[in-house]
Specification:
Length: 234
């Protein structure tokens, strides 16, 4: 069955609660207690606790910039836009046993080539969200299933259709959320069962294991109406 809270969670990525969860993810990936993390950031343990549980206003923009700067000094590349809004590439941390770990399932790209252009892309994406509050979803393309139109690392966004509205997404390239909570970029076709859909990779040479998914139940489909090419060179 679809998760009724999944879409709401997607809408809340810019909330103070989401910021706290992202900060907690970083701390836990570093295997640090709140005391140790606070010492490295130059704040109190109670400040870290308040940020993580969204107490007393949670993590503000000014303090987020402080965190990003402090993390950089620890060798962790974390963008302000990701920490505050969940936009763009998640940070990577070094684990002594596992090596470099990316804190999301987004594609691993060359962070050294990131430029100020990313800030412009993030600003556009925030404006898009604000223009259609509660109705948008965005995604960093994670596979080659829709090449050459959409490449790994490209940014796409759309306006969500849910329930019976999903039929209006048939025939379009869409960000879809399946009943299993998978988030994919695929072309949507009618399924053989009522209320189900076929998801198609348009790249015939794709490395995706299952380029056709038949009779999939969808929580949401969002035809792509905004796209920016990756600023990273392959």
């Amino acid at each position: 069955m679809p998760n009724p809270g999944a879409i709401e969670l997607e809408d809340l990525r810019s909330s103070r609660k989401a910021r706290g969860l992202r900060l907690e993810t970083i701390r836990q990936s570093l295997h640090l207690s709140r005391n140790d993390f606070a010492e490295k950031l130059g704040v109190s343990r109670y400040t870290i606790q308040n940020w993580e549980i969204n107490k007393n206003g949670g993590l503000s923009e000014d303090r987020a910039r402080h965190v990003v700067k402090a993390l950089k000094g620890m060798g962790i590349q974390c963008s302000f836009e990701w920490l505050m809004h969940g936009i763009g590439l998640a940070p990577t941390v070094a684990d002594l046993i596992l090596g470099e770990i990316t804190l999301s399932q987004q594609p691993k790209l060359d962070r050294s080539k990131e430029t100020d252009e990313f800030s412009l892309i993030a600003a556009e994406l925030r404006l898009f969200r604000e223009h259609y509050p509660g109705k948008t979803i965005d995604l960093v393309v994670a596979d080659d299933g829709m090449e050459p139109k959409y490449n790994k690392g490209d940014y796409v966004a759309g306006i969500k259709y849910v329930k019976n509205q999903i039929t209006h997404a048939v025939g379009y390239d869409c960000i879809v959320q399946t009943a299993d909570n998978d988030l994919l970029l695929r072309q949507v076709k009618k399924g053989s069962l009522e209320g189900h859909y076929t998801l198609v990779c348009t790249n015939y040479n794709t490395s995706v294991v299952k380029p056709l998914l038949y009779d999939v139940q969808l929580v949401m489909a969002a035809p792509v109406v905004w796209m920016r090419k990756s600023i990273h060179k392959k």
